[in-house]
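Handoff note, outgoing to incoming analyst
You'll be picking up this chain. Sequence as last confirmed:
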Amino acid sequence: MANLFEQNRNYVLGDEELNLIGDREKLAQWRHKGMGPAFYKLGRKIIYRGEDLNAWAEAQRVDPGHGRA
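Most recent structure output, in case you need it:
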């Protein structure tokens, strides 16, 4: 799979690229519920690593034709 995010980049809330997976409120809900991609919380700052975002996105992949006879 082609990466949706740059592997070696850190993303912070407000980065436009994060809108691919959800808006700021959705990401906050997921963090509160222990869902969504892995993140770092440094003080009040939330940081997502590109490689974690790509791994999470790949895990969400659905192949509708898989398993059909």
